[in-house]
Amino acid sequence: MNLDELAERILQGDRRALARAITLVESSREDHRAQATELLDRLRPHHREALRIGLSGTPGVGKSTFVEAFGCMLTAKGLKVAVLAVDPSSARSGGSILGDKTRMERLSRDRNAFIRPSPSQSHLGGVARRTREAVALCEAAGFDVILIETVGVGQSETVVAEMSDLFLLLLAPAGGDELQGVKRGIMEMADLILVNKADGDLKPAAIRTCADYAGALRLLRKRPQDPEGFPKAMTVSAVQEEGLEEAWAEMQKLVEWRKAHSFWARNRAAQARHWFDQEVRHALLAKLETTEARAAMDELAARVAEGSLSPAAAARDLLAELDKDDRAA
Ligand SMILES: Nc1nc2c(ncn2[C@@H]2O[C@H](COP(=O)(O)OP(=O)(O)O)[C@@H](O)[C@H]2O)c(=O)[nH]1
Ligand SMILES: [Mg+2]
Fold first, then answer.
1. What confidence tens digit (pLDDT) does each residue in 232-264 have?
2. Where's the AAA+ ATPase domain (predicted)?
3. Residues with Cβ < 8 Å from 111, sequence gap 6 or more?
4. Which of 2, 176, 236, 242 is deepest in the core (most CB within 10 A)?
């Protein structure tokens, strides 16, 4: 299939074409990278936009169960829902969302849903770009809502928040009356905190935990992109499918307000600038990873170590060498 055909089929919402295109953006082969960039350039003029919802939470809080219940609720409303994942640990664990597909059985059989496991590799930077491009492909394919799930480890929440319009933090009811070890930085990113498992024996604890977080949210600095009452904490039960309509109503309220007050567009513009910056940094760092650059660096490092060259002079020489290679190429 050539790129024109692939682009055409994606625009028609063809899921096989979409899956194929995502495989293309996930590839690190140089010719595939070039094709992926070309494909995205062809899709961009169509300006299709989805609501991108980032979702984070530690393992076991019920992300997969929530995505299944929430996703099915949205498709029942006639919306098309895509689920993507950013999981930097998947290289080791074999992919969290993969095993999760069984937990998302209903959603994965839904014709209006598309679930894509996290690409299983290496560093967060690579996963971030691939997910971002997969988001763009899902938008072009006409999806209305894109859920981007991540486990709460390391920097992955930040990465997901940087590509989302809304960021949800999913929590479980706390045992005691202390707040769970949620880092302040992550609290500050959240638009909505959802305390899951508000059912059965856990319900009182969930209500208490929710109140604790509502209090903690009020203590945070007010953000310009929030109307009165946001960010907000709510209880839900993914298993009982309770509180999901209410959570969706709050999300829509927030989105409408941000659109009306130009924060939506401003946020997307700032995100685009951020990713451009990241791409430049990646590309520059990649220049150091070539065999030639490594050899030149090793040689200069040896001279720095023996004291015949200063670190600054060696760095200058290396950069001059890289510039020369660029011009020759
Ligand atoms: N009681 C209760 N259990 C839940 C709820 N949501 C998820 N669970 C359970 O919590 C466990 C972890 O759920 P899972 O969706 O795999 O969490 P994830 O690791 O965050 O994706 C499973 O045993 C679920 O059945 C809920 O709303 N109520
Ligand atoms: Mg899961």
1. 999 999 999 999 999 999 999 999 999 999 999
2. 49-221
3. none
4. 236
Nearest ligand, CA 115 = 2
pLDDT tens, residue by residue, 280-306: 998 888 889 888 899 999 999 999 999
Please state whether the predicted TM-score (pTM) of the whole model is above 0.85.
yes
Residue of 179, 187, 254, 166 whose CA lies nearest to 211: 179
What is the domain-level CATH number for residue 244? 3.40.50.300
> Ligand 1 centre from 62 Cα, in Å?
4
Q: Say whether both 217 and 253 belong to one domain.
A: yes
pLDDT, block means (10 residues), the chain with 329 residues = 93 95 90 94 93 93 94 98 80 50 83 84 71 95 96 80 95 71 82 97 94 91 91 97 98 97 95 93 88 93 96 95 82
| Cα 11 to averaged position of ligand 2 atoms, centre (Å) | 30
Tell me which ligand sits closest to the C-alpha of residue 96.
2
Q: Is the Cβ atom of 195 under 6 angstroms away from ligand 1? A: no
Question: How far apart are alpha carbons 74 and 93 in whole angstroms?
Answer: 30
Is the domain of 60 the same as that of 198? Answer: yes
- Is any atom of ligand 1 closer than 6 Å to the C-beta of 63? yes
Q: Strands of the chain (E only): list them.
A: 51-57, 81-86, 113-115, 145-151, 166-171, 192-195, 232-235
Tell whether 143 and 33 lie within a shared domain: no
What is the widest separation between alpha-carbon atoms in the chain? 72
Query: Ligand 1: which residue has its CA nearest to atom 8?
Result: 62
